[in-house]
Amino acid sequence: MKCPYCGSEIADNSKFCTVCGGNLQNANQTPAMAGAGNGSNASAQAMEKVANTGLMLGAAAREARLYAEYDPEDIISTRLYNAIIVGVLLYGIVVNVLLCYFVGDIYEYVHPILFLVLYVALAFGGVIIAAKSSKSIFSFLGYNMVVVPFGLVISTLVEAYGGIGSEIVTLAFLYTLLIAAGMGAASIAFPKFFSNIGGALLGVLIGVVIAEVILLLLGFDQSVVDWIVAGLFSLYIGYDIYRSQQFEKTVDNAVDCALDIYLDIANLFIRILRIIAKNRD
Fold first, then answer.
1. What is the pLDDT of residue 69?
2. 98-121 average pLDDT score
3. pLDDT over 90, % of the chain
4. CA distance to 42, 129, 240, per residue, from 146 (Å)
5. Is a pLDDT exceeding 60 seen at residue 54?
6. At what angle do helices 136-160 and 112-132 cross, to 10 degrees?
7. Could you give the percent of the chain with pLDDT greater than 70?
8. Distance from the CA of 133 to the CA of which of 38, 61, 174, 219 falls in 20 to 30 A?
9. Closest by CA position to 267, among listed 241, 235, 244, 243
10. Closest among 264, 239, 240 to 93, alpha carbons compared
């Protein structure tokens, strides 16, 4: 039989594609079979779920991208698709480094409350634009609307921990880079594992965020929470890299996937930075 995701020849009794890692147990709901009766029903159900949310965000946005119909002219090669993901990711990292170098502590220029309002407006708006748009140029605009304010948060933290070049910041960057590379390799080596952990990761993350808020209000140390969240975002990197290979290979999907992975990496860096700083104290 052929994999409905990538078209590779695979064993008839396979549950997952050995090439792309696609979940064959739900193959009747893939974009490649959208013309069949089950595929059409799945597509309609997916879009209904998105409509009910009001916004194409999170799992609903990914589901909509998975079931969407694409113009064959928009499909690009897997190599180019992955190159765009890596390129957009590197662009976001470079922007963050430049912000750290030239801006530093954003609170020296903008009042904290004003910055918080702008941060929420820009980042949330960027996610919405990227999720709702089917045009790569608008998705890239949304990507920048997330990268810049998030980068300003990172630059403020980096400045607080000694600035670019300090031992703490350098170690945090290296650890983040190594973990991201390792999880990327793991997502390729163990696609079955990453295909099954999305719901669990989201549930645990919500629980940890609630616990963190409670601990913060009660004034308790949150070192353990930092380790847990760092572990979660490490797994999220592998999961989102795995998920990126399940979508149709288009420039727009590449930019959207890069945004998902960027947020994972940025959050992981922040947690590792805090962990190293606390250990040094």
1. 77
2. 91
3. 49
4. 31, 10, 17
5. no
6. 150
7. 76
8. 38
9. 235
10. 264
Q: Is the pLDDT of residue 254 over 70?
A: yes
| Residues with Cβ within 8 Å of residue 9, at least 6 apart in sequence | 1, 2, 3
| 3 state SS for the chain | CECCCCCCECCCCCCECCCCCCEHHHHHHCHHHCCCHHHHHHHHHHHHHHHHHCCCCHHHHHHHHHHCCCCHHHCCCHHHHHHHHHHHHHHHHHHHHHHHHHCCCHHHCCCHHHHHHHHHHHHHHHHHHHHHCCCHHHHHHHHHHHHHHHHHHHHHHHHHCCCCCCHHHHHHHHHHHHHHHHHHHHHHHCHHHHHCCHHHHHHHHHHHHHHHHHHHHHCCCCHHHHHHHHHHHHHHHHHHHHHHCCCCCCHHHHHHHHHHHHHHHHHHHHHHHHHHHHHHC
Residues 6+ away with beta carbon under 8 Å from 269: 154, 172, 173, 176
43-49: average pLDDT: 37
Q: What is the C-alpha to C-alpha distance for residues 74 and 150, in angstroms, rounded to an integer?
A: 30
End-to-end CA distance of the chain: 58
Residue 19 pLDDT greater than 80, yes or no: no
| pLDDT surpassing 80 at residue 145 | yes
What residues does 23 pair with on adjacent strands?
16
Mean pLDDT of the chain: 81
- How confident is the model at residue 280, as a pLDDT? 76
Q: pTM value? A: 0.76
Q: Are 268 and 179 in contact (CB under 8 A)?
A: yes
